[in-house]
């Protein structure tokens, strides 16, 4: 059975368009990592076709072997295909992942693609399949809620949140996730109470979600609480540069630019920053949104020196010089 699953996912990996600079037929983990990171950076910078090309090359380095790295690369490829407008290609990639091991995340993401194509029945079916594979994954419930709510199906979306509240666990992690869910349901006090319990029980990530709730308020005291909790989250958690990026990007999506900037800048301070380009780009954008054009210009100068092939950044740098 495992051999058959390898053959299924290999269909995605062997049908790639390989960059002409590739050579050799053995597995090359160093090249794979380089191509993957370049592809991820291109994805984050909105260069979707370039991302797909590089991720295809990363997959080719596996020489047909399938492991966690190849599966992760396939997920990035599916995202790049979807964002490039190639819904058909994204569905094909996610379907291959599903055929490989009934991956719950792949079901969910394929459902999102179907939903974007107004194929609601297929989307709902995939969401149900995802939860059948992992019925206690809070992130799936929250993700499905966000997808359906953004599509205007608020009532149906909330049904998934209520299902997640029925997960019969009461550890610190569960309290944190249920706190997030109560906040989405508009029950702020209940959410804050559970998040504080989660923190007391040792769940440091709960600091982030508690800060996120306080950041929604216009009260100075709440703004201070937001800053306090975000600071605690960054100080007490051993975050990688990718995690700093993820949390900062989450805040940026909510137009919380000042808070997101702190995450991007702290990510850039780490010794190992494989996603430095993406962090710098987001930090520049956050500076601009907060009105700090001087800092944006200074960071952009460093960015274009480090990544001279980014033509869009060069044009933006010219603009920033006029501010």
Describe the structure.
- The protein has 323 residues and is mostly helical.
- It has 4 domains: 1-101, Alpha Horseshoe (Serine Threonine Protein Phosphatase 5, Tetratricopeptide repeat), CATH 1.25.40; 118-168, no CATH class; 169-237, Serine Threonine Protein Phosphatase 5, Tetratricopeptide repeat (Alpha Horseshoe); 247-323, Serine Threonine Protein Phosphatase 5, Tetratricopeptide repeat, CATH 1.25.40.
- 75% of the residues lie in helices and 0% in strands.
- It contains 18 helices and no strands.
- The protein has helices at 2-14, 29-44, 48-60, 68-83, 87-101, 104-116, 120-133, 138-150, 154-164, 172-184, 188-200, 206-214, 220-236, 241-253, 257-268, 276-290, 293-306, 311-321.
- The N and C termini lie far apart (62 Å).
- It holds the Pfam family TPR_16.
- Keywords: Repeat, TPR repeat.
Features:
323 residues; Serine Threonine Protein Phosphatase 5, Tetratricopeptide repeat; 4 domains; Ycf3
By DSSP, the count of extended strands is: 0
Number of helices: 18
- Please give the share of residues in helix: over 70%
List unreliable stretches of 5+ residues: 14-25
Cα gyration radius (Å): 21 Å
Into how many domains do the coordinates divide?
Answer: 4
CATH-defined fold name of the largest domain: Serine Threonine Protein Phosphatase 5, Tetratricopeptide repeat
Element string (H = helix, E = strand):
HHHHHHHHHHHHHHHHHH
Named at the architecture level, the CATH assignment of the largest domain is Alpha Horseshoe
How would you sum up the major sheet? none
Distance between the termini: 62 Å
Please report which band the strand proportion falls in: under 5%, 5-15%, 15-25%, 25-35%, 35-45% or over 45%.
under 5%
Structural class label: mainly alpha
CATH class of the largest domain: Mainly Alpha
